[in-house]
Amino acid sequence: MITLHHLEASRSFRIIWLLEELELSYQIERHERHPETMRAQSSLKAVHPLGKAPVLCDNGFTLIESGAIIEYLLNRYDTRGLRPPISSEDYLRYSQWMHFAEGSLMPPALLTLVLNKMANARVPFFARSIVKKTVNSTLEGFVMPDLNTKLDFLDTELGNTGWFCGSHFSAADIQMGFALQVLHGRGLVGDNLLNIKAFLEAIRLRPAYQRAKEKAGLLTLSLPGKNESQEPKVEPSVDATSASTTDAAR
What we know:
Glutathione S-transferase Yfyf (Class Pi), Chain A, domain 2, 4 strands, Glutathione_S-Trfase, globular
């Protein structure tokens, strides 16, 4: 039996989603976050020394890192074509996005969370303005321009087919979809990025995504002072409904 060690508002959502897409039997072991630090509590360190989610246990083997777990599950269990043939051009795009999600998109998402926590942290009065000025200059001068450039690029790419890898849904959409959900949930995806918004609508309409959301709970941590941790409600558009229905029929 596949066992997934899951931490709410973590990358383990990707794995629950993939397991649902593959319609595999599995069990979830849930772990809690510390109410102050928001890090995983000690129960997860008992499973793996790093104490981070996801952790997948299968056939006597323990595996970490969401990208590696996705590849393992596809290698062993994929009967639904969620990864293109390795000799195809689509596979090159698939590989690119599997790495882009963690190498390029998640770092600024983490930076915005950390910097906003710094700006709202309790510090001595005389240092408060210095901290906020440093945080704002870092966000405005580096983090947000870099993130917006990447989001503009992704919006253009999604304008081709609506998916990240060819004309059909793939595991690359799971890898990238989680990262974009995190950014959208923190209010960092502008209203002008219509192709990203349509993509988010399309993945939320997938039955496997909806089942995963019910099982996973909270999807992302909110920025301090904001209530953005709940997934934004998006009304399905005609195009998004069409994309989901067409792909589900494959």
